[in-house]
Design goal:
Helix content is 59%, strand content 12%. With 165 residues, it is mainly α.
Length: 165
């Protein structure tokens, strides 16, 4: 008769589902981000603008910084910043995976970061293509996912804290 498996090294079922959920969201974000950037690179000449919605233009620009063009330049510095931020996020998630819905913003943040890192590795810069009025810097779906992920992370963490979880 085989000995019973050692359950002390296994994740609780809820935590395992949270990790799978976060991974699924991350994969979805990366796929949508990369597809949208590929469409832009092949359909809009660099420097041209295409009207998409009232007040929203589609452009093909390159960004060497982080989300929305912040911290331009230093490729190594940006990479180190991203790696550190992801490490902190993963540690936080590891200790809080049992919190309701926390896997959603975690997946959004990981997927957004990976989507932009893939661009940096393949092209040396990130393709941004959504241009809003009032001088807002162009951004992409990965940037939007990161921004919304940060907001949701704070909302879900605060909700869990208030409910005592």
């Amino acid at each position: 008769m085989a000995p019973a498996p050692d359950r002390s090294t296994r994740l609780p079922r809820g935590a395992a589902r949270a990790w799978l959920g976060a991974a699924g969201v991350a994969v979805l974000v990366v796929v949508l981000d990369q597809l949208s950037k590929q469409l832009v690179r092949h359909s809009i000449p660099r420097g041209e603008e295409r009207r998409f919605l009232p007040g929203v233009q589609l452009v093909d620009t390159r960004n060497h910084g982080v989300a929305f063009g912040f911290l331009p330049g230093g490729h190594a510095g940006v990479t180190i910043l991203i790696v550190l931020a992801l490490a902190v996020l993963l540690v936080y998630f590891a200790f809080n995976a049992d919190r309701p819905l926390i896997w959603i913003p975690t997946g959004m943040l990981i997927g957004g970061a990976l989507g932009n890192v893939l661009d940096r590795l393949r092209y040396g810069s990130v393709t941004d293509f959504v241009k809003l009025p009032l001088g807002w810097p162009p951004f992409n779906l990965a940037d939007a996912s990161i921004t919304l992920g940060v907001i949701l992370l704070f909302v879900f963490a605060d909700r869990s804290r208030r409910s005592g979880q």
